[in-house]
């Protein structure tokens, strides 16, 4: 009986010793900060509310981005993500500009959890440029300052920032081509990327080109939140929204972001 007890203790000791030498698999966290076009509406976005009943089919591209960061895909961006596992932590929130995202403490919660090798994808601009909504508006110089802050603090933690120009809206169209609706904000992102030597994904241009290729009628019906009454429980009267995406649109935009990451690689 005593010998069995000793053997059991020795086995346990050996097991603990082996476990101490086995390092847990490294995982990179990919933080997404931005506005409603990036947000994850399905992951308890509104506490206690059923996404399928109150929001679906609205989908931010960050909500479907995890599927592009599976093991096989990570081989294509191995200079950006050096681990064999990545987790998308989507902190984006509807209605937020660079300023309000910072003021509400949302950035602080990301910053406190950043570790070396993590990625921070930064896409703002939709709400910064809303001059008629003073509670969120940020002028170009202020916009650039907040981008600098996010970048510098990300780097201070040993993490990697990636800047994205704001994704296109489904207007204005001119002669069959989707135009830039964001004024000088995309250029401001490019200027900061050059100034601070930050990797850039020009999502505004990529999405304009993609939607143009598909054509306005197809993009409007399949990618943006345009549909008739009675189709979805959350929108009994239908919807006409050329800013936010249906699931198909979000997937295509997420694909564009991943393609941008491959190009950076």
Write the layout of secondary structure elements.
Layout lengths: L1 H20 L6 E7 L16 H4 L16 H4 L11 E5 L7 H6 L2 H8 L5 E5 L16 H17 L3 E5 L8 E2 L2 E2 L6 H12 L3 E2 L1 H12 L1 H7 L1 E4 L11 E7 L1 H18 L1
Parallel strand pairs: 1-2, 1-3, 3-4, 4-7
Antiparallel strand pairs: 5-6, 8-9
Helix pairs in contact: 6-7
Description:
The protein has a single domain (26-264), classed as SGNH hydrolase (Rossmann fold). The termini are far apart. It is built from 10 helices and 9 strands. Helix 6 (140-156) runs parallel beside helix 7 (185-196). It has 265 residues and is α/β, with parallel strands linked by helices. A hairpin with a 2-residue loop joins strand 5 and strand 6.
List keywords for this structure.
Rossmann fold; 15% strand; 265 residues; alpha/beta; 5-stranded parallel beta sheet; two-stranded antiparallel sheet; 9 strands; globular
């Amino acid at each position: 009986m005593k010998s069995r007890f000793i053997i059991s203790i020795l086995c346990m000791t050996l097991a603990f010793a082996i476990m101490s030498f086995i390092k847990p698999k490294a995982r990179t966290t990919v933080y997404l900060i931005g506005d409603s076009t990036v947000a994850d509406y399905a992951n308890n976005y509104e506490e206690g509310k059923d996404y399928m009943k109150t929001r679906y089919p609205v989908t931010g591209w960050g909500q479907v981005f995890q599927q592009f960061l599976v093991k096989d895909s990570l081989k294509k961006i191995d200079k950006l993500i050096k681990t064999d596992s990545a987790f998308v932590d989507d902190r984006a929130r509807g209605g937020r500009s660079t300023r309000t995202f910072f003021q509400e403490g949302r950035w602080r919660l990301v910053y406190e959890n950043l570790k070396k090798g993590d990625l921070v994808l930064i896409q703002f601009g939709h709400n910064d440029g809303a001059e008629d909504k003073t509670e969120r508006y940020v002028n170009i110089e202020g916009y650039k300052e907040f981008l600098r802050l996010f970048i510098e603090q990300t780097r201070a933690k040993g993490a990697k920032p990636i800047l994205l120009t704001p994704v296109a809206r489904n207007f204005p169209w001119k002669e069959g081509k989707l135009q830039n609706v964001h004024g000088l904000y995309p250029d401001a992102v490019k200027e900061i990327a050059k100034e601070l030597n930050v990797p850039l994904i020009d999502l505004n241009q990529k999405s304009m080109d993609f939607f143009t290729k598909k054509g306005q009628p197809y993009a409007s019906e399949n990618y943006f939140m345009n549909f008739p009454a009675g189709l979805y429980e959350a929108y009994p009267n239908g919807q006409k929204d050329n800013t936010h995406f249906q699931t198909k649109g979000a997937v295509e935009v997420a694909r564009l972001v991943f393609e941008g990451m491959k190009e950076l690689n």
